Amino acid sequence: MEQNFEGQNRLVQITPSSSVPAVENDISYLDIPSLTERQIFAKKAYIGFRKIIGFFYTKHSYGATRRWVFAKVLPDRILYRWKPYQRGGCNRCGLCCKIVFRCPFFHEDQNSTACMIYTSPRHAPPPCVVFPIDPIDLAEVQREVSPAPCPFYFEGQPEHPTTWGAVKAEIRDQLGKRVDKLKEAFGI
Ligand code: SF4
Ligand code: SF4
What we know:
Layout: H1 37-54, H2 60-73, H3 76-79, E1 86-87, E2 106-108, E3 113-115, H4 126-130, H5 135-145, E4 153-154, H6 163-186
Helix pairs in contact: 1-2, 2-5
The chain binds iron/sulfur cluster (2 copies).
One iron/sulfur cluster binds at residues 14, 97, 103, 105-106, 115, 117-118, 125, 128.
């Protein structure tokens, strides 16, 4: 059965991190169309198709895929390790929603920009919500929207700046805990 997300998808400013102060949250004045679940899946399929064919002609598909994979597979401890160091904020220019092709969830009028699914519990796009994951992720988008600025930046860095370094540290940590439990169990 098709479900209508009227109200639920009357989103939302494009502010990729809750740690960034909102410029303006009330966009109820925007005339954002309501989407059925089928329409949302169709638009997501279109995005996936455009990303895949993008591998043949744009570097952005590689950066977008990195962000998507990380957002899907990394545990929060690794995924969000750069957030305490994130500064700046989103100015709602909407340019990152129009790299290579215009995202079908992007809404724009004379007054504002918005994403139709950003706060949908079921359909919020993980790669967009977690942006920027780390300096590599941010640099990729900043390169694409240049010369316009994307005002995020990082100040300082986490203990394990690289993703691979953070993954190795997490594995070591988890293995260490298992070994400690075994030692405890066998009274070693
Ligand atoms: S390019 Fe940066 S400033 Fe512009 S909408 Fe995207 S995240 Fe916000
Ligand atoms: S889903 Fe599309 S419109 Fe929404 S934040 Fe991501 S790129 Fe922008």
